[in-house]
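re: ur question from yesterday

yeah so i grabbed the chain u mentioned. its 445 aa long if i counted rite. heres the sequnce exactly as i have it in my notes:
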Amino acid sequence: MNTQKTTLWKKILIIPAIAIGIIILFFQQQGRESPQQIPFTEPTINVRVIEVPMVNLIPRALAYGNIQPDTVWEAVAEVSGKIVEKHPQLKQGVILKSGELLLRIDPTDYQLAIAQSKANLQSIQAQLNELKVKEQNTRLSLKIEKKVLKVAQKELDRQRQLLKRKVVSTDAADKQERTVLAQTQQVQSLQNTLNLIPAERQVLKAQLAVAQTQLDSAKINLERTTIRLPFDARIAQVNIEKNQFTQQGKVLVVADSIDVAEVPAQIAMQNVRHLLQPSSKIDISNLPKVFGLSATVRLRQGDFKTEWPGRFVRASDAVDPETRTVSIVIAVDNSYRQAIPGVRPPLIKNMFVEVELRGKPHPDRLIVPRSAIHNKQVYIVNQESRLEKRALDIDFFQSNFVAVKNGLKKGDAVIVSDLIPAIEGMLLKPVVDTKMTEGKCKIQK
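ran it thru and got these structure tokens back, copy pasting raw so excuse formatting
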């Protein structure tokens, strides 16, 4: 009983203590100043931007290929014979000038053929001269024999008149008639000889033409015994040596021209479309001028780089069905004359090079850096300095930028720095990237 009373009194005594503590805490809070309210400030993110430029855009496309000579010349033996002379520098890789004597085939047989043909010509010409004299003599003889025949015929007529009057015998008249017949046969023989002379002359003239042809052929074959270089060239192959025998038709030397080098390069069809501008009239006889393409050929080897001006000459007649590319040919003139030791080498066969094609300028085109494109969108800083995502209608891509059809206007601030995360409406502090802006402006040059 006493224990229960003691416990009750302890509980009652706790209540005043708690009340006193609450009162003290209340007065302490009343004496303090209220906490200071800190205003909320939205974070700002610094970004690099460029103002969208409007430029006269020169479309460009890159292609790659191996250097090939414009002309490959094969010296084919047109006659058979032993090689009696060879150019001392006729070796692979050597550059020789136009007109240089490379090889000489033994000309003896062909010189003899010329002499024989000349003799045949002289013989036939002599026969023609003889026939001419024969014709003159035959005509003269025929004229005389006709006069003799006329006299004999008159004598026969006289003998017949005398026979009628029985002044002469029949034998005398018959004898004179036989004389007339013999003379008539003589005249006819001469006439036949004269009639055959034109045919004989035609035969001799035909033989003369054949002999002249044989002489011309022999002279041509003699010329073919000497093989000269038709243009300045670099020797690619030598397949014969001095004192060796060559058959007609054998390839003796292969040489590559050095005045013009060509680059057959492959370019994607979608890139070709952007290089060309629509035209209502196309002159198919002058396609390089119609296309209006200019070209630069570059050689890159590590840190070394050099380039040559090129010109578009032609395109292939078909598209590669596997790669969907078209082959174009770019020509570089006089690369050997432009060569500078240690600075610019000549363009050598099978050298791998880069080709940059440039089309006619497209006026008033909007461009943005390729790195600023995010899934066909760009991030721009709007007038409230906030992030806005803008969908683009892209015309075509270039190496480091894109040409835009719709979605932007000149002067829009496009973000070019990496922005992660990119939240629509976030507050931004734009800083113009002057270096990239200058780079974009160079595109129109």
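noticed a couple things. DSSP finds six helices and 24 strands in the chain. also The chain has a mean pLDDT of 84.
anyway ttyl
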